[in-house]
Design goal:
The structure holds two protein chains of two kinds.
Chain A (H helix, E strand, L loop, with lengths): L4 H18 L2 H24 L5 H29 L1 H6 L5 H21 L2 H10 L4 H27 L4 H21 L8 H7 L1 H9 L5 H25 L3
Helix pairs in contact in A: 1-5, 2-3, 2-5, 3-5, 3-7, 3-8, 5-7, 5-11, 7-8, 7-10, 7-11, 8-9
Chain B lengths: L1 E10 L2 E11 L3 E6 L6 H9 L6 E6 L2 E2 L4 H7 E4 L11 H11 L4 H14 L15 H13 L5 E5 L7 H14 L4 E6 L2 H7 L2 E6 L2 E6 L1 H7 L5 E6 L7 H5 L6 E6 L2 E5 L3 H11 L3 E7 L3 H9 L4
Parallel strand pairs in B: 3-8, 3-9, 6-7, 7-8
Antiparallel strand pairs in B: 1-2, 1-4, 4-5, 9-10, 11-13, 11-14, 12-13
Helix pairs in contact in B: 3-4, 4-5, 5-6, 8-11
The chains are: A mainly alpha, B alpha/beta.
């Protein structure tokens, strides 16, 4: 009997979490996330005097563009080289189920990182009067960025069997979404709408003031699904190449 | 269980599998034999759906590998040439994961994993990390993952590659045992392994099936016959002319030092002739055609 798509994705998801737990990769990711996040938080409060997560979240979103590919680079590239991808692709697991399971595991890891940021909120409450809704919006934005990076990272990982190449490639793919925000100030007027469309930080601006814009959510959903779709096509094309 | 019709796979301009027609059913051990580059791995990958067919069709366990790949994969156990293991996992964790992705229900998962551990001699090794195992035991884990969902068909790609002689013996015994209640198809380029283990041999060369049958059937197809090797005391007269008169003889080949290879004659006739001619027989040995001879004849210059 073959498992349903969701059961297969669930099995892959649990295994990915197990691998993250036992391979130290998860611990290294979380240490970096919390370490850098704490630093950004303290520096942000010190420089702005604002009882808010905003400065830390903005910097952490950029940090995720570099940290998440370190996790995803192993997920398909390394597995293709070690042969475990062949195990999954010769089991009754569809490529979408495989990708969703792996993507969800990375998103969960980012979620653990965000949940572990609770002490920052406690500090804000101890010394100020932060807006809880605003803080939730900030952290939601961070999580959406994590999901986007995981999807792009998986796509990069599907393109090669060299995990380092996959990591670098993912950063290269994600960098324009960050640089577009900076570039729009110096770009010609005709290019600005296009840069706005890919700039991930622009999508966080509404969240940064505590609002949740459905357009931004749709943008994150489309971008994430788009990268996963491309990864799916690459996996399928391997059967024919 | 396996039915292929003109199954073809090309990689760019290279044809790895060329219009392959296979029909394999029942239980037992079938060897897929061929020199390096003959298309063995590609054939197995096509049958699992890991690779797509360029042309032709393939049915595995009654399902089309292109149209119904997930149904096929649920019924096939597969061990790639590189054992697909997660070194950082424990043996038990790994097998439970494989059982889950292969669709074993939660209620029977533990018992299926236990069964696979037992059949592959891994009981007591469940909590060992795979990275700490020897190559032979890793191979056992790889075999256990291929049978954990109790598939009717198991495909093994060079399962004994790189093993030492002691490991070879135990893994071969294990493969033989696995074939008792299912069909096991395994690829190899080791002739003694196939001769020793297999009920049926499929010989591939340049992606084509050039032989199919038991070792003796392959020998017959290759034009090889059972022979007698006669050894006379050295220094005696040349017996070729007298031997050529034996009834039914199709070939006599002098091998030197009083030895002759005779095809198509009965041992009793040879002994009678030797007694009548006063020859001293040192040996009279029946020689079956070997798989090696048949293989070399079938694949031509490819081996």
């Amino acid at each position: 009997m073959r498992p349903s798509t969701w059961r297969a994705a669930w099995a892959v998801y649990k295994n990915e979490l197990r691998l993250l737990a036992v391979s130290w990769l998860g611990a290294v990711f979380l240490s970096a996330f919390w370490g850098l996040g704490g630093l950004f938080f303290l520096v942000g409060i010190g420089t702005t005097g604002e009882a808010s997560l905003r400065p830390a979240v903005g910097n952490l979103a950029i940090t995720l563009l570099f940290l998440v590919p370190m996790v995803t680079m192993r997920q398909l590239a390394d597995e293709a080289r070690s042969g475990t991808l062949e195990l999954a692709l010769t089991a009754p697991v569809s490529s979408p189920a495989l990708l969703v399971g792996k993507w969800a595991a990375v998103v969960s890891l980012v979620g653990v990182g965000i949940a572990g940021s609770a002490p920052w909120l406690a500090v804000l409450w101890r010394f100020g009067e932060p807006d809880l809704g605003l803080a939730v919006a900030h952290l939601l934005g961070l999580w959406l960025v994590g999901g986007l990076c995981a999807a792009a990272g998986l796509f990069a990982s599907s393109l090669t069997t060299e995990s380092m190449v996959a990591g670098v490639l993912a950063v290269v793919l994600l960098l324009p979404t960050w640089l577009a925000s900076a570039g729009r100030t110096v770009a010609p007027a005709v290019a600005q709408p296009w840069l706005d469309r890919i700039a991930v930080l622009e999508r966080l601006r509404t969240l940064a003031i505590g609002g949740i814009d459905s357009g931004d959510l749709v943008w994150f959903a489309c971008a994430t699904i788009g990268w996963l779709f491309l990864a799916w096509r690459v996996l399928e094309s391997r059967r024919w190449s | 269980m396996i039915e292929t019709r003109a199954m073809t796979r090309r990689f760019g301009g290279d044809t790895a599998v060329d219009r392959l027609d296979l029909s394999v059913a029942g239980r037992g051990l079938v060897g897929l034999l061929g020199p390096n580059g003959a298309g063995k791995t590609t054939t197995l990958r096509l049958l699992t759906g890991f690779l797509g067919l360029t042309e032709g069709s393939a049915l595995v366990c009654g399902f089309d590998v292109v149209e119904q790949p997930l149904e096929v994969r649920a019924r096939v156990g597969y061990q790639p040439e590189t054992p697909p293991l997660y070194p950082e996992l424990q043996v038990g964790e790994y097998l439970r994961y494989v059982a889950e992705i292969r669709g074993v229900q939660r209620a029977t998962r533990l018992s299926r994993v236990g069964e696979a551990l037992e059949r592959t001699g891994l009981v007591g090794w469940e909590r060992r990390r795979i990275r700490d195992l020897s190559k032979g035991y890793r191979q056992r884990v790889a075999l256990a993952q291929a049978i954990v969902h109790a598939p009717p068909l198991v495909l093994l790609d060079e399962p004994t590659a790189g093993l030492d002689p002691v490991q070879l013996v135990s893994i071969r015994a294990l493969i033989r045992e696995l074939a008792a209640d299912r069909l096991v198809v395994f690829s190899t380029h080791l002739l003694p392994e196939v001769a020793q283990l297999c009920d049926r041999v499929l010989v591939l060369a340049r992606g084509r099936l050039v032989g199919d049958g038991t070792v003796s059937e392959l020998a017959a197809r290759a034009g090889l016959e059972r022979a007698l090797e006669l050894g006379l005391r050295p220094g005696g007269p040349d017996a070729s002319v007298a031997l050529a008169a034996l009834p039914g003889l199709r070939a006599v080949t002098p091998l030197g030092e009083g030895r002759y290879r005779l095809v198509g004659v009965a041992a009793a006739d040879v002994v009678a002739l030797a007694v009548a001619a006063g020859w001293a027989i040192e040996s009279l040995i029946p020689r079956e055609p070997t798989l090696e001879e048949a293989f070399l004849r079938l694949v031509g210059g490819d081996a």
